[in-house]
Model the fold of this input.
Amino acid sequence: MKQFIALTKKEFFESHATYRVYILLAVFAIFGLMGPMMALLMPVIFEMMAADMAAMGMTLEIPEPTAQDAWTQFFSTFAQMGTLALGIIFSGVMANDLNRGTLVNLLTMGLKRHTVILAKFFTATVLWTAAFLLAVGTAYMYTAFYFEMDTIAHVLLVFGAPWLFGVFMLALLIFGGTLFGNFYGALAVCFGVFFALIAVNILPAANRFNPASLAGGTLSIIMGAGEAADFIPAMFVCAGVIVLLIIVSILAFNHKKL
Amino acid sequence: MNNINTLEIKDLTKAFGGRNVVDNVSFNVPEHCVFGFIGANGAGKTTTMKMILGLLKPENGEITVCGERVRFGATKTNRLIGYLSDVPEFYSYMRPKEYLNLCGEIVGLSNAVIKRRTSELLSLVGLANANKKIGGFSRGMKQRLGVAQALLGEPKLLICDEPTSALDPIGRREVLDILQAIKGKTTVIFSTHILSDVERICDRVAVINNGKITMEKAMSELKVPHRAKAMTVEFAGEVDSDEVMRVLAENNFAPSHYEIPATSIEELFLEVAK
Done:
């Protein structure tokens, strides 16, 4: 436990010293802001287009933006750019420490190998949670300020799903980093699995169990189209795979030549 | 009771791609010995050391440190070992004290002990006043910090993998002086291909070539006996060579050959870089 605390402290300090935490928070605050802003700007953009189209003899109906538009923008930004940003920002968490040889010193001092994986996963999850809460908080505040907002049903599930998907990405990055020992490997594993899951998502039968449906899928609940129960199996699959990835990472690291 | 061996290696073999890089190596390192492990680049020195640290898995053989068996992937025996690599890597954003604090916490020392050991060790390695980030350190400074880190847990065995190879003559001398200073408190195994370094600090040496130990002896057994055909004599100050030859002749010594060596480049460098 002492080693876990020591290494966790080091990970947090590293996030501060390398500005990772500040980049992460800034990026996700912007993502949070972008949802409602895009919803607000859409009519302006459409209006400019409408002027051109009117010249061509077409008329364009411009609807008033709503809170639902804001959330639609938010979730789609999240599912694409959010995943990408998360992957890039955390790609070095395991990989750099291995690649630069800095971990060898600590391991030869008796640091247990499984502690490395657990402390890194824990720190990354805490940072990700903070960034996620900041993004959702920002989006929520602006949406409530600019639009009429109904209460969101199943709020924990709606926002818990993309958060859990982020944790899944982190577990993939740690697994890939452990396996390949560099950040290219970590990114390749993370995005490779991500795109594979998206490809699988085309099959309606797999949809219910596919963690990729958690990335932005729970938007359908806000829109009133989806049921909470639709996402429960995928949540369980995702949580199970995260635990599995961490266990496999520990086993792989235990057998890794350094 | 027998002599206690801090490190015992028996029939150790390691292959990479079908070739035995370490081939049936056996040797013991007695307590409080400075053991020189000599070999050319690629002879198998680093591979052997990494197996002692549990970082590589041997194909065959047994390693014990202070009577405890080393197991690959586990770090239990590493609490007895301090390790200094040829080019130690540190977190560049940390300062020396922060880094040693992290190491101390990992070793499991109390805060008071960490504080005391950190200041002791930083002054031993001459970094007491170096409070900048490690990213701005020279190689020599990193090597010295590496020594401090390796000694932090008061290890029974200090493993130094070519600690002087990447250093300039001044840095080399500094690291050797530090190793000399800790002699007697810790058992040291020290790999190198610089033979003059071995001569300066080692008590025992083993030569490894193509993965095999080709010679293992105490330093005293290697020393030149008292009767010899040739000898090199060095004086503390300048002397008149004619005078020396005259004194030799008066005492019935007739050298068949003598030469006055030019100042070595190393000496010259140390002189001007002071």
Remarks:
- Chain A has a mean pLDDT of 89.
- The interface with chain B takes residues 2-3, 5-7, 9-10, 13-14, 17-18, 100-102, 104-113, 254-258 of chain A (CB under 8 Å).
- The radius of gyration of chain A is 21 Å.
